[in-house]
Design brief:
- The structure holds 2 protein chains of 2 kinds.
- By secondary structure, chain A is an alpha+beta fold.
- Chain A has 2 domains: about 1-80 and about 250-270, Sandwich (Immunoglobulin-like), CATH 2.60.40; about 90-230, C8orf32 fold (Roll).
- Chain A has helices at about 110-125, 130-145, 155-165, 170-180, 240-245, and strands at about 1-15, 20-25, 35-45, 50-55, 60-65, 70-80, 90, 145, 165, 185-195, 200, 205-215, 215-220, 225-230, 235-240, 250-255, 255-270.
- In chain A, a hairpin with a 3-residue loop joins strand 12 (about 205-215) and strand 13.
- Chain B has 15 helices and 23 strands.
- Chain B is globular, with a radius of gyration of 23 Å.
- The chains are: A alpha+beta, B alpha+beta.
- The interface of A and B includes residues 48, 66, 102 and 250 of A.
- Chain B: InterPro entries: ATP-dep_Glu-Cys_Ligase-2 (IPR051680), CP_ATPgrasp_2 (IPR025841), UCP005522 (IPR016450).
- Chain B: This is Circularly permuted type 2 ATP-grasp protein.
- Chain A: This is Transglutaminase family protein.
Chain lengths: ~280, ~475
């Protein structure tokens, strides 16, 4: 499938910010089943984008804007050719052994409730890593209802799990905390999801997880949809949790009254017919 | 305490040669005079403002650290041994860090278990494959040493992150020289006052290639609420460099600048006394207001040097400590000159069996615990506590290490009723630059002022002494 993405982030300030500095993780890299046809980043500020690679192999762009401004726009836009790999994630850049992804973080610490939940899921399945992960993705989907209201970017797995509500980020954090507690290396994935119902406008990007299964490697699970990732998914960045894969991390100096607007469009690209 | 080695009297009561002059001087001195000098010392410390903060104490945020007027003396041959041992250890630590964040040969060789590194919070993925100037990660190390016999020194702890205490080493000497010039006339004591020069030379030597001929070095402090703030401002002053907080620096076009009245000035080397977690809200804790947004990006691009490097905690972590002798052998193919405190790793079945057999004699520590929490002191624990600990160790052996209870050496100390032996340790400061290791002769001697106490921490009633290394 050829997926076309545009993702516009607009910041407005009631009184101008004197300085903005940001690090973006918004550039997909190719792997088996994902070919980046074209991709560009455009920042409204007059600045230089510095490209680097982070610890987990994600491409980062950093910039700072020192001209007082009342708004800032970051646009990423491009096309990615995807194939369904039954959730298998191969050909990615791996800087660490999978066991690194057993580390807990503040956002993904398993509390007693998550530990018990994970244990119950594991006990209900045959003693097989893949079966347990399939069980876990269904269980998280059933247990935590998708709801954009009660949580925010700093909500922990434990908080979301006790609320039983959250967005894709929260469901992913709960899955990660549970999987790691069962000894399964697991990581957070940020990217985009193409909806098959024809609706292209979305409020945000998507998030899911990858879990490491012996003999298979990394397998992508989406707890928000209770399934493995397919060719409807564009994988952009991975990390130990949301913070490691966040599309934007930044700081603003001065200025007041910031409002943030995000407009994401994910659609199928017009297929060009070869003649 | 009878079994302890005494720095002045050894184990048999004979005055050791280095202490002969001090012994004679102490005999001549009237207790009233010493008391008077103690009061003068306190007055001087107050005037200088050398204080430290104790967290969690409501009544006072700033306190004077008790100072003992009787110096601790090391002979030149004792120091020569320490110096060789410290140089070797810090060299190995730097090689280990380069390897851990690079080729990981020591993991491939199976010397350190992989999970101890990768699942350790102090291992920083951000440092993977990161180049640092001249392969120096730990520019300033504070190695805690205890002595248990005439020739036996143990390393108790390596401090490879942001070790503090060097300001006391410098101040204690200055005050001793003012109070007891006559005592200095009896000895040839190696100077320590060149430490700031040595530190500055070390820091300048590791400036990035892009730096100016005379690199701009700054000291980054978390600010006035930090317990070591006095030391930060003291050192910045002695080094003649700017003392800055995160908000005084900014990153622009991948370069770090300091805000000045004449506009931004490029910064080449940051002697940072801010922990990794708080250095850069864009890379680590997003809620940190102590750091500099974008600093890690500039660091990764090699535009600025951080001293110490990020991620050095993976060298001084408790879980790694017991592997230090193997680390020295692996990288240097030498026997370690300074020994570790014998440590049993409960993750290894043979060690676990021994520990469970001898719980009543050992100190058992949680690998990731700190500040005395999750600790069993076998000789003073009752049966119930030992039994409870046994269950905990058996449930998760990996999480525990055990060590013998140590008889730390004692040193004569001025207490209410005169001179009495008190337990001490030593923290020398090891500076590693472009191609030299510099160690100012001496360090910070901490003393447990309570009779019989082994706790030398200043937060728990410990004091300090001037540390003398004799020139001949």
């Amino acid at each position: 499938m050829r997926i076309r993405v545009s993702h516009l982030t607009t910041y407005r300030y009631d009184s101008p910010a004197s300085r903005v500095i940001q690090t973006l993780r918004m550039t997909p890299r190719p792997h088996d089943g994902q070919h980046v046809v074209r991709w560009r980043i455009d920042v409204s500020a007059d600045c230089r984008l510095t490209t680097q690679e982070d610890a987990f192999g994600n491409i980062t762009h950093s910039f700072s804007d020192d001209v007082p401004t009342d708004h800032l726009e970051v646009l990423v836009e491009g096309e990615v050719e995807t194939q369904d790999t039954n959730g298998l994630v191969r050909g990615t850049i791996e800087r660490f052994p999978p066991s690194l992804y057993l580390r807990e973080t503040d956002l993904t610490r398993a509390d007693p409730a998550i530990l018990a939940f994970a244990r119950a899921v594991a006990d209900a399945e045959p003693d097989d890593a893949l079966a347990r992960l399939h069980g876990l993705v269904r269980a998280v989907y059933a247990e935590v209802t998708f709801d954009t209201d009660p949580t925010h970017p700093a909500t922990t797995a434990s908080e979301a799990f006790s609320l039983k509500r959250g967005v894709c980020q929260d469901l992913s954090h709960v899955f990660i905390a549970a999987a790691r507690s069962l000894g399964v290396p697991c990581r957070y994935v940020g990217g985009y999801y193409w909806r098959s119902d024809g609706i292209t406008a979305q409020e945000a990007g998507h998030a899911w997880v990858e879990a490491h299964v012996p003999d298979l490697g990394w397998v992508a699970f989406d707890p928000t949809h209770a399934m493995c990732a397919t060719d409807a998914y564009v994988r952009v960045a991975v990390g130990l949790d949301y913070l490691g894969a966040a599309p934007v991390r930044g700081t603003r100096f001065g200025g007041r009254g910031e409002t943030l607007e995000v407009a994401v469009h994910v659609g199928q690209a017009f297929q060009q017919v070869q003649s | 305490m009878a079994d302890c080695f005494d720095e002045m009297k050894g184990t048999d009561g004979t005055i050791r040669p280095a202490y002969a002059g001090l012994d004679a001087w102490l005999r001549d001195l009237s207790p009233d005079l010493i008391d008077q000098r103690c009061q003068e010392a306190e007055l001087l410390f107050r005037r200088i403002g050398i204080t430290f903060a104790v967290y969690g104490e409501a009544d006072s945020t700033e306190r004077l650290i008790p100072f003992d007027v009787i110096p601790r003396i090391l002979s030149s041959s004792e120091w020569a041994l320490l110096q060789r041992g410290l140089t070797q250890r810090v060299k190995a630590i730097n090689m280990y860090l380069k390897d851990i964040y690079g080729r990981r040969e020591i993991l491939k060789a199976g010397i350190i278990p992989v999970d101890l590194v990768f699942q350790n919070q102090v291992f920083r993925p951000e440092m993977n494959a990161q180049k640092v100037p001249h392969d120096v990660y730990v520019h300033i190390a504070g190695i805690d040493i205890v002595r248990v016999g005439p020739d036996t020194f143990y390393v108790l702890e390596d401090n490879a992150r942001t070790p503090s205490g060097v300001s006391y080493m410098l101040e204690n000497r200055e005050i001793m020289m003012r109070l007891f010039p006559d005592l200095f006339s009896r000895y040839r004591v190696a100077p320590v006052e060149n430490y700031p020069d040595e530190l500055l030379a070390t820091l300048k030597s590791v400036a990035p290639d892009t730096a100016a001929a005379d690199p701009n070095v700054v000291l980054l402090t978390p600010g006035i609420y930090n317990s070591a703030y006095f030391e930060h401002s003291f050192l910045a002053d002695k080094l003649g460099i700017e003392l800055v907080e995160g908000r005084d620096l900014l990153v622009k076009g991948g370069v770090v600048y300091m805000r000045t009245t004449e506009g931004p000035k490029r910064v080449d080397v940051i002697y940072r006394r801010v922990d990794d977690d708080f250095l850069d809200p864009l890379a680590f804790r997003p809620d940190s207001t102590l750091g500099v947004p974008g600093l890690m990006s500039a660091y990764q691009a090699g535009q600025v040097t951080l001293a110490n490097a990020v991620g050095t905690g993976i060298a001084d972590d408790k879980a790694i400590y017991s592997y230090m002798p193997e680390i020295v052998k692996f990288y240097l193919a030498e026997e370690p000159i300074l020994r570790n405190v014998p440590t049993w790793r409960c993750r290894e079945p043979k060690d676990l069996a021994y520990v469970l057999e001898h719980l009543d004699e050992l100190v058992v520590k949680e690998v990731h615990g700190s500040g005395g929490y999750g600790m069993l002191i076998g000789p003073t624990a009752d049966k119930g506590k030992i039994a409870a600990f046994r269950t905990r160790i058996e449930a998760d052996p990996k999480n525990y290490i055990a060590q013998p209870t140590l008889a730390l050496s004692t040193c004569p100390t001025w207490v209410e009723r005169g001179v009495a032996p008190r337990h001490i340790d030593l923290r020398p400061f090891v500076l590693t630059g472009k191609d030299t290791v510099r160690i100012v002769p001496g360090g910070l001697t901490r003393v447990a002022l309570q009779r019989g106490s082994l706790v030398v921490n200043s937060s728990q009633g410990g004091g300090t002494k001037d540390t003398w290394v004799l020139d001949t």
